[in-house]
Amino acid sequence: MRNGDTLFIDGKWCAADDGRTFRVTDPATGAVIATAADGGTAETDRAIAAAHEAFDTWSAENAYRRAEVLWRTHALMTERAEDLAALMTQEQGKPLKAALNEVRYAADFLAWFAEEAKRVYGSSIPSSRGGQRFSVLRQPVGVVAGITPWNYPVSMITRKVAPAVAAGCSIVLKPAEQTPLCAVAVFELLAEAGLPPGVANLVTTSRPAEVGARLLDSPLVRKLTFTGSTEVGKDLTARAAATMKRVSMELGGHAPMIVFDDADPVHAAKGAALVKFLNTGQACISPNRIFVQRSVLPAFTDALLDRVGKLVPGPGHRPGVTIGPLVDEAALRKVTRQVEDAVEKGARLLAGGDRLTDDGLDAGRFFAPTVLADVDESMRIYREETFGPVAAIVPFDDESEVVRRANDTEYGLASYLYTRDLGRSVRVSEALRFGIVGVNDINPTAAAAPFGGVGMSGLGREGGAHGIDEYLDVKLVGVCLP
Ligand code: NAD
């Protein structure tokens, strides 16, 4: 494992200029795993310059060659999936099986965009003037800055780097300070796959604002792609305006899940348990408000409690563990505050509700899988993104009421509904103001499908045929024939 030399600039691994490093810890034990280079202004400038230098050659490279590099990276990632998953479990905390699923999802983006590189089609447009021809080209935007979060520390990187590289852009990536080692592992694969120097550069840092400011202020950077909180995303978007950068923003969510009385409540509870506690609730598509129609409320609640009772919290590498720690103390405080506030305002605590400290869990940041019933509008958990293992159940009576309440949020990323009524599934999925709707489906995501939100959940789409558009400018060429 690299120690301190985790910057990847112009095809070379290096340390910070002043040798500064920061510690990377295991959230399950608090133990220090390694140190990472603490890049700053000078290192970021060099990474931008390297990306700028590489852009002309890489953008002129043919699409088949760009695709080959991504396919080779895909092969390496698939071959080393178990090692990468073990590293992710250690650095981020999720159970090994979930980490392996994430690595496979991350590799899917490499494969998908390797193919999309060959489909950057243009078009021709008929002109009203006989001697004129119009053609439309799609060309890479230039140097891209990518900023990624800790919760999906491998797939959020390939979801940005793969389309950028496929489109012919070069990129400078700044990963989250909690998970630089996963980023290093991805960049090692890109380098081994033969990506030319400068095309993808990595700046690890414990000073995101300093590196971010440099990336944002540089006129050489033509696009920012960000995944993280709405608060930071809004700030970066405003800042990007000064140099008129393109922006893609994958931000927070506050997903509703609606369980109608015509659905099977036990099946719906199984889905709710799987997606709610995925990644310890630290997912932007995690259902935060589980609306259940009153007549199926008892059956749904019993089935959910049964599933929650079987979850096994612990360090992600321990056999049998199904739910890992929260990322840090601040996350624990936020979840605790939301649960206390809800209980004070009348919610019933049916399971969990506390930090877990027995069986050696006190060294990590573990919160018991929690179920709250009778949640309503007056509670913080009804309004704020939770990002923790708390299922908040909200009773409802009819369809129009629940659609209004589900849409009553500034966020608009994922939403879910359970129904067996075809008409209702169409009506409600059309009425929900979210970028993603899962109908009897808790996993409406794939590399081949567009992912993204509306409102305060962001701008643009990642993945699918739309994903590469974010890295391409449209150019019109008008030709007058002599
Ligand atoms: P965060 O916004 O604090 O951090 C995300 C990234 O931004 C990190 O790399 C961090 O270092 C960086 N950052 C923070 N301040 C910065 C600044 N001033 N300048 C430049 N970079 C800065 O978010 P987080 O709490 O680490 O991540 C969780 C959030 O991410 C949640 O809100 C979640 O919903 C969201 N998320 C969204 C998606 C999506 O696709 N929509 C996916 C995963 C996570």
What is the chains' assembly state?
A: single chain
Q: What distance lies between the first and last C-alpha atoms, to the nearest angstrom? A: 63 Å
The CATH homologous superfamily name of the largest domain equals Aldehyde Dehydrogenase, Chain A, domain 1
Shape label: globular
Mean pLDDT across every amino acid position: 97
Total number of beta strands:
22
Q: What's the total helix number? A: 15
Q: What structural class is derived from the secondary structure elements?
A: alpha/beta
Radius of gyration in whole Å, from Cα? 23 Å
State the CATH topology of the largest domain.
Answer: Aldehyde Dehydrogenase, Chain A, domain 1
Under CATH at level 1, the class of the largest domain stands as Alpha Beta
How much helicity do the residues have? 25-40%
Strand order, main sheet: write it out. Answer: 14-17-18-13-12-19-20
What is the strand content? 15-25%
Which helices and strands occur, and which strands form pairs?
Blueprint: E1 7-9, E2 12-14, E3 21-25, E4 32-37, H1 41-60, H2 63-79, H3 81-92, H4 96-116, E5 123-125, E6 132-140, E7 143-147, H5 155-167, E8 170-174, H6 180-192, E9 200-202, H7 208-217, E10 221-227, H8 230-240, E11 246-250, E12 255-259, H9 265-276, E13 287-293, H10 297-309, H11 329-344, E14 348-351, E15 355-356, E16 366-367, E17 370-373, H12 380-383, E18 390-396, H13 399-407, E19 414-418, H14 422-431, E20 436-439, E21 458-459, H15 464-467, E22 472-480
The structure holds nicotinamide-adenine-dinucleotide.
The site of nicotinamide-adenine-dinucleotide (NAD) has 25 residues, from helix 7.
